[in-house]
Amino acid sequence: MFNFKKTVAFLFFIFLTSCGYTPVLETQKTIGINNLSFEGDRKLNNHIFSKLKKFTKGDNNSENFNIIITSKYTKTVANKDKKGNPKNFNLNAKVELKISKINKKQKVENFEKNMSLASQSKKFNEKELENKYIRDLSIIIAEDIIFYLKTQ
């Protein structure tokens, strides 16, 4: 029985190491952004730009893109209390990404993220929390954009 367990463990190790598995996020493909322009919501765009600016200095070995980002942020009331005051809000961030490579056709990709925000008794705290959520949403979208560009 002991010999059988050793054999199974050895075979499992051999198959696991020789399957050719490589993590998607650890690809060696480098990307570069030649032109990066923004339209739409300024807060979303600033946070997205802060994540993408390190790719604007592409080297000769990287795949270069021209990108236009159009963003839109909406805050809607999800539900109200008995007095008609808002209890919860839905925060929605939409980003349209237009990508073009040199001598290739333009692609359009959409990214959308949502979050819920509970109403606060102090509006200052609510605004701070909303700004934090906007930053979080835009960072998630920026990471999705980077992942999308690396897999193109």
Q: What's the count of strands?
A: 4
Structural class: alpha+beta
Provide the low-confidence segments as ranges.
Answer: none
Strand residue content: 35-45%
What is the strand arrangement across the widest sheet?
Answer: 1-2-3-4
The first-to-last residue Cα distance is 49 Å
Radius of gyration: 23 Å
Helix content: 25-40%
User: Secondary-structure element sequence?
Assistant: HEHEEEH
Biggest sheet statistics: 4 strands, mixed
Number of helices: 3
Q: What is the gist of this entry?
A:
Helices cover 36% and strands 36% of the residues.
In words, what does this structure look like?
The protein has 152 residues and is an alpha+beta fold. 36% of the residues lie in helices and 36% in strands. It is built from three helices and four strands, in the order αβαβββα. The chain has helices at 2-17, 42-52, 123-150, and strands at residues 31-40, 63-80, 86-100, 107-118. A four-stranded mixed β-sheet has the order 1-2-3-4, covered by helices on one side. β3 and β4 form a beta hairpin. α2 (42-52) packs across α3. The chain starts with a helix and ends with a helix. The model has no long low-confidence stretch (mean pLDDT 85).
Provide key terms for this protein.
36% helix, four-stranded mixed β-sheet, flat, 152 residues, alpha+beta, 36% strand
Please give the structural blueprint:
Elements: H1 2-17, E1 31-40, H2 42-52, E2 63-80, E3 86-100, E4 107-118, H3 123-150
Parallel strand pairs: 1-2
Antiparallel strand pairs: 2-3, 3-4
Helix pairs in contact: 2-3
